[in-house]
Predict the 3D structure of the following.
Amino acid sequence: MNISKKKSRPKAITPRGFRDNFHSYLKKREEVQRVVNRVYELYGFERLETPAVETVDALGKFLPDINRPNEGVFAWQDENDAWLALRYDLTAPLARAFSQHRNTLQVPYKRYSFGPVWRNEKPGPDRFKEFYQFDADIVGTSSFMADAEMCFIVFDVLKELGFSTGDYCTRISNRKILSGLIQAVKLADTTILGDIELVVFRAIDKLDRLGLEGVKNLLAKGRTDSSGDFTEGANLSADQIDTIISFLQITNDDPNKTLEEMKFLIGDSEIGRQGLSELSNITDTLLSKDISNLSFKIDPSVVRGLAYYTGTVFETELSTPTGSLGSISGGGRYDDLVSRFTGQKVPSTGVSIGIDRLVSFLHECDGNNEKGVVDVLVTVMDENLIHHYIKIATELRENGINTDLYVGNPKDFGKQMKYADLRGAAFAIVVGTNEVEADIVQIKDLKLGSKLADNISSNEEWKEQPAQFPVKREALTKKILELLRR
RNA sequence: GCCGAUGUAGCUCAGUUGGUUAGAGCACUAGAUUGUGGAUCUAGGGGUCGUUGGUUCGAAUCCAACCAUCGGUACCA
């Protein structure tokens, strides 16, 4: 008989790739959300909310196989064995919702969405399995003005969040130009993505991380990384590699010069020329609008979602004095996504802002002067006076003052002060029998007291309580409101 | 998936060449100082020493496998 056998306790940990977010972070996120909402609505976008769950079919994933049921997504079968999954972005649900409700929606349909998305992938230092996206899309127009609007939106959002043009830059390109390049080096005649093109595009996409040498290796035989792992390359010829590499090196602050140089390398590829003219239109539009927060350049190394984008692609990077935050936003034109459902071409374009990094950064920035939720702590001096305390707390709350009534063990009064301090309360209310008899309450200014404490050395000075003063009981609320307004 | 590093209390870590009942600080709970700000004192809770197997009279310690975490890399709508 061994009753005291140890029970195993559950481990208190967040699952890998997930996070707990606390008060001040969430407040900051709400703030950012308000700003982005406002900008989207200024541009005439309306909100849409779709469920977290979609059918796997709608998301455009192949059925998970038995060995790897959740490749990339979180998927499961419902009671009828149909596959469902958590959404992995906000665009696929938009395509589905638009197709489903298209007879009641105005085209072009401008909508924005905010919410968490989930990806069942290995998390990294700044990558998680659950993160928030903030998307704006225009469904049903092929106008380059729609693409340009996406760029303007990002500029405006960043401006409203307090960043300046030196902090960010949007890199713009066009997928048709890449297709033209593929034709120019005679890799393929089709515009349909084959295996080699995919390898080439992936290699180009890694330019910023691996540098020209790394990309060159990936275009040739392959590349061995620092851990000794080998990645198979595209096995292109030296001529082909040279052309692609010189294409990638086209970087000019003058967008029109960049376009000139691209034109030269693309040659007479039909699709490439088309891409160039689209890119040129967007550039003209961006430059024509005389705005102060414009910061972009044409960059041939922008690739993004491989099976997704069909034309314009762009990506915005944010760098701050403390270092680069990386890409915080991206998007582009996807003309084929809706036609999966409707069978008709519905050209669309959109932008997605990943706000987690933005929020983390902004949260760290003002991490030092955080304000707690609690304005006032009502302390418990004497447990027999609890009805007094409740009355005070209720009165303060009715007047919109965030009030915490101490509900811990009240025996150690010093501990209540410590608690008030740690919660960030601005004031403590102290009422004992003396105060009740005199019909007063003591208000203690915790912020002032904390400041004074630096210059206090003796215990006697403490006892004088310079940061504390009495007011008449009925004047309490008015006084607190006045003090909080300072 | 591949490569590498690391696993002892909620957190940060000690733990000797293998040797009693595995420790400290912080945090937490209670008590004391009987009405005031990160204080002091006392007591307490909290550990399958990542897991399993092996060597041994004896394993947190030595060996093996596995698992997990972290980092890099691949994939990425």
In short: The CA atoms of residues 205 and 303 of chain A lie 6 Å apart. The mean pLDDT of chain A is 86. The domain at 162-313 of chain A is CATH 3.30.930.10 (BirA Bifunctional Protein; domain 2).
